[in-house]
Inverse folding.
């Protein structure tokens, strides 16, 4: 692929948006390649994904304004759908996805980071939804996910003012989970991903599904979703092994990695 790099390191996969000269901006080709890359991840081996951008300046600077500038209403809506379809695929991907945000995360860049399960960033990261300054609305889920993550009031302030925020403010409002020096960002992301990968894969996947689906319904329905996914973990090799090891008072055996069963 032209703009997406993929590397597998044991049980983790690293997806890099590689359009550095354009600050990793998202055009139609990048979106299509990202969708294809997600389809090609070996879910029998990979238990956690990391998404990042090439270089040390930008994660994703946004959608490609050059491509958007001449779109008609119908084309604009179709472009929004293309982005939303890919971001939704990322959001509902069976395994956890960590966004390692290494610089600008503006517009579509902020939106794609919010489609990931966990966001960590470098000290030079900058976040924002600048679309109203360009005469448009956020079109890849920004009006929806930002409000869910940081609350409606803060989301409206960021979107209406088109004002960018730095890493420390992103941490303060809960948009990111942690901030690291640039050189420590990817090692921290890989450490977290490997920590996730060591846990029972069926349980981790079911946790992601329970959280995501539960947020879209009321509490009574959400509890039913949790009960079903909780029950689905039983009779798996991971559940049998994990509980047997816990109950073994002597702990004679060193705990082995969970199998993907």
């Amino acid at each position: 692929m032209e703009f997406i790099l993929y590397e597998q390191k044991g049980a983790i996969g690293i997806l890099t948006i590689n359009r550095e000269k354009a600050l990793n901006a998202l055009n139609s080709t990048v979106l299509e390649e990202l969708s294809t890359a997600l389809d090609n991840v070996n879910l029998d081996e990979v238990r956690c994904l990391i998404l990042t951008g090439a270089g040390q300046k930008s994660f994703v600077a946004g959608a490609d304004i050059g491509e958007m500038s001449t779109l008609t209403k119908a084309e604009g809506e179709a472009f929004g759908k293309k982005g939303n379809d890919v971001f939704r695929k990322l959001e509902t991907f069976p395994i956890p996805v960590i966004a390692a945000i290494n610089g600008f995360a503006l517009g579509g860049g902020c939106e794609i980071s919010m489609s990931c399960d966990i966001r960590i960033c470098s000290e030079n990261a900058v976040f924002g939804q600048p679309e109203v300054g360009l005469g448009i609305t956020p079109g890849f889920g920004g009006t929806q996910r930002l409000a869910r993550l940081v609350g409606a009031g803060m989301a409206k302030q960021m979107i209406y003012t088109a004002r960018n925020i730095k890493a420390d403010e992103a941490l303060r409002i809960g948009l990111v989970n942690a901030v690291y020096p640039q050189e420590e960002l990817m090692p921290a992301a890989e450490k977290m991903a490997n920590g996730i990968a060591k846990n029972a894969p069926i349980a981790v996947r079911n946790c992601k599904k329970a959280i995501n689906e539960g947020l879209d319904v009321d509490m009574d329905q959400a509890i039913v979703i949790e009960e079903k996914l909780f029950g689905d973990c039983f009779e798996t090799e991971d559940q049998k092994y994990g509980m047997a090891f816990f109950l073994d008072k002597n702990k004679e055996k060193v705990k082995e990695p969970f199998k993907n069963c």
